[in-house]
Amino acid sequence: MTPLFVSLDEYLIGSLPELWFAVVMLALGLYVFLDGFDFGIGMLYATCETEAERDTLMAAFGPIWKANEVWLVGFGTFLIAAFPPVYARLLSEHYLLAIAILFALIARGVAPKLRDEREDATWQETCDRSFILGSLVSPLLLGTLVGSWVFGTGALSLPAVLTGVVVVALSLSTGAALLGLKTDGALRDRMARYGQGAVVGYLGAVVLLLTVAVALDAGAIRSVVASISGIAIVLTTIGLGVAAVVFAGRGADRAWFASTAGLALALLAVVISLLYPTIYPAAEMTVRDAVVSPIPLNVSTIIGLPVLVLVLGYFAYLYSVFAGPVDEHTFEGGY
Questions:
Q1: CB of 142 within 8 A of CB of 99?
Q2: What is the rounded distance in angstroms from the CA atom of residue 312 to the CA atom of residue 159?
Q3: Membrane-crossing residues (predicted)?
Q4: Contact 177, 257 (CB under 8 A)
């Protein structure tokens, strides 16, 4: 007979640890994609030729910029709630990298605010450079951290640094694609050319990363690449990259943006394939080894997952509100 209540030493469902692994990966993927196009727009800010173009780019993502960073907080929160040993090792073994990421995010975050405080060309140029540099360095270091984590090779290894380059190229691709939706005319056409170049650069960076990682067999990637799912992910990535280039050239902006979103999902699939069933390869720690005991995970599930559903619903509403193009006269972000 099935017991009415779950025992205190049992999970609510048998696969609850794997469900929380999926939640952690979901938060990571949403952050890489959503804040990724923020980083990309920040890097493309360097190509602006006039003050009006700078205002247009800031308006394109201004209303959603801070909201997207929620997923970085969410990733850390979910990780410490369900897998505290992984959270502890990830930060303690990469604390210098984590501090550098924090400074890069701060430099990027405060620069636009400080820029408006003084009507001085030199001051504004300095703030612009800080914003652009922070937008470049943040995804580079974040990608390096993720690469070090999934490959288990250390932050200074070539596979880890190349993962950072891959995330930079992906951010440029998604940033240009979002600007394709938000702008029009000559600015939109210029962003399409940048976006096509970024996608080609992304595919090249992925090929280089896979070549180096396979040569070193970092994170046992040879078995992943040789598997049916690994081959499917590689072919899907190539197909999405080609589709993004074609759609950008034809002015199919929604399809272009969807293709770059698919590239982010494919990259997340690679991360999951490299990690699972382990969750911290450097320590050979599996999901079941690192997960908390049943009582705290059950409580986190009952309290946290409904909140996650509410946040996802809020984001769907937020993006529907700001779905339109930027008004070239008022520089408002598509209400």
A1: no
A2: 33
A3: 20-48, 69-88, 94-111, 131-151, 157-179, 199-218, 224-248, 255-279, 299-319
A4: yes
Task: Give the position of tokens 């770059």.
Answer: 260
* Half-sphere exposure (Cβ direction) of 115: Cα atoms closer than 13 Å: 20
> Which residue, among 147, 150, 173, has the nearest Cα to 162 in the 3D structure?
147
The residues facing 285 across adjacent strands are: 280
- The per-residue pLDDT for range 133-178, each reduced to its tens digit, is 999 999 999 999 999 999 988 888 999 999 999 999 999 999 999 9
Show contacts of 203-211: CB within 8 Å, 24+ apart. 203/237, 203/238, 203/241, 205/162, 205/165, 205/166, 205/169, 206/166, 206/237, 208/162, 209/159, 209/162, 209/163, 209/165, 209/166, 210/234
Residue-wise pLDDT tens digits, 232-277: 999 999 999 999 999 999 999 999 999 999 999 999 999 999 899 9
Nearest-5° Cα angle at 85, 81 to 88 = 90
Q: C-alpha angle with apex 154: 69 to 131, nearest 5 degrees?
A: 35
The predicted-structure confidence for 60-111, as pLDDT tens digits, reads as follows 887 788 888 899 999 999 999 999 999 999 999 999 999 999 999 999 999 9
CA distance 186 to 217: 45
How far is the C-alpha of 24 from the C-alpha of 83, rounded, in Å? 9
pLDDT at 249: 94
pLDDT number for residue 297: 94
Quote the pTM value: 0.92
Q: Is residue 333 pLDDT above 60, yes or no?
A: no
Contact indicator for 45, 315 with CB cutoff of 8 Å: no
Q: What DSSP string runs through 50-75?
A: SHHHHHHHHHHHHHHHHHHTHHHHHH
